[in-house]
Amino acid sequence: MTPAAKAPHSSRRRAIRDILLYGLCGGVLITVLKLTEYRFLVVEHSLEIYGGLVAALFAGLGIWLGLTLRRKKAQVVITQVVRQPQAGPSSGPFMADEKRLNELGITPRELEILGLIAAGLSNREIAGRLFVSENTVKTHSSRLFDKLGARRRTQAVQLGKEAGLIP
Amino acid sequence: MTPAAKAPHSSRRRAIRDILLYGLCGGVLITVLKLTEYRFLVVEHSLEIYGGLVAALFAGLGIWLGLTLRRKKAQVVITQVVRQPQAGPSSGPFMADEKRLNELGITPRELEILGLIAAGLSNREIAGRLFVSENTVKTHSSRLFDKLGARRRTQAVQLGKEAGLIP
DNA sequence: CACAAAATCACCTTTACGGGTGACGACACG
DNA sequence: CGTGTCGTCACCCGTAAAGGTGATTTTGTG
């Protein structure tokens, strides 16, 4: 039914707004479908079509809702990889040099994108993987390049490696 | 020639399975609702109830799906295969894997350019450093990408590292 | 609540890349 | 000698990337 999971605290207003929005969408959809239903009722398989439509629409809506709800929570985690050659804490999988991160003023999101760039993904692919628009990725990477002093993504990767930001 | 490219296989099957499961659930639900519908049809507001039921069920299902999908994707992961850097100190700086070079049919010049690409240089800079025209560099890199199966230079760098062609 | 930082998205411009095709000289090999 | 490989260069075209500006929304903190 209604989304049970929500942020721990301090975002109740938003959750309420979401629920209201959700209910509104549901009402509108049901209304629309109620209207269309009367046209389709003369056809044989109207109910199947109707049910399928409602199902698909609400499934999509639910997926979207689940995604947006989830987005707040988890998602940081980049990394993995073996090999930590030079100086560094070198603990477990990999740990970005936080000192350098703060020095350069690189945000978590930008670091994440740097990792995906280093993995050889295009902006579009990164956008798809992070569920954001390509423009957003471009903005992030642009600022990232700025902070790193890079002019190209390959250079950003190189500099990021040297700075110990990525494995 | 289909070179490396192995990482995403493990999770794709699960995604397909999820989708199939989803479709199956949908079919079962629709069937069940079709059956129940015949009982409710005598009642006045059966369609509303029916629609509401379908909507609610599929919304919940969608939310669940969104959450699970999100969880899976949120781990980002950037796999980078285990790779023993240099087994022997005999090759002090670095030595490209000649076997793989021959396998892929990569010429010395192309390897050279791959190295410069990995260093973050643009085509123009590479051209300047090698005293050749930019077009030449583009030709080389184009053929290089072809042999590596890369579509972007960042990807070529990634694949080249995995193949042990560059440090 | 207000504020700042971060994240998101849109639009526009210019440049860099990637793909395709064709061509030419050098050089080795059978 | 012909053939094949390699390196070199040119041109065109379409897309991707990078740079800039502005705006909105989320979110964490005071």
Walkthrough of the structure:
The structure is a homodimer. Chain A is an all-alpha fold and about 170 residues long. In chain A, about 65% of the residues lie in helices and about 0% in strands. Chain A is built from 7 helices and no strands. Chain A has helices spanning about 10-40, 45-75, 100-105, 110-120, 125-130, 135-150, 155-160. In chain A, helix 4 (about 110-120) crosses helix 7. The longest helix of chain A is centred in the N-terminal third of the chain and has 29 residues, at about 10-40. Chain A starts with 11 loop residues before the first helix and ends in a 5-residue tail after the last helix. Mean pLDDT of chain A is about 65; it is low at about 1-20 and about 65-90. At the A-B interface, helix 1, helix 2, helix 4 and helix 7 of A face helix 1, helix 2 and helix 7 of B. The structure holds a DNA duplex (30 and 30 nucleotides).
Task: Draw up the topology in text.
The structure is a homodimer of 167-residue chains.
Chain A: H1 12-40, H2 46-73, H3 98-104, H4 108-118, H5 123-130, H6 134-148, H7 153-162
The first copy, chain A, binds a DNA duplex (30 and 30 nucleotides) through helix 4 and helix 6.
Low-confidence spans of chain A = 1-20, 67-91
| Series of H and E elements of chain A | HHHHHHH
Which oligomerization state do the chains in this entry correspond to?
homodimer
Note the main sheet of chain A. none
Beta content of chain A: under 5%
Biggest interface, chains and residues, is: A-B, 63 and 55 residues
Radius of gyration of chain A: 23 Å
Q: In whole angstroms, how far apart are the ends of chain A?
A: 43 Å
Mean pLDDT of chain A: 65
Class of secondary structure makeup of chain A: mainly alpha
User: Quick one: overall form of chain A?
Assistant: elongated
Percentage of residues in helical conformation of chain A: 55-70%
* Total E-strand runs of chain A: 0
Number of helices of chain A: 7
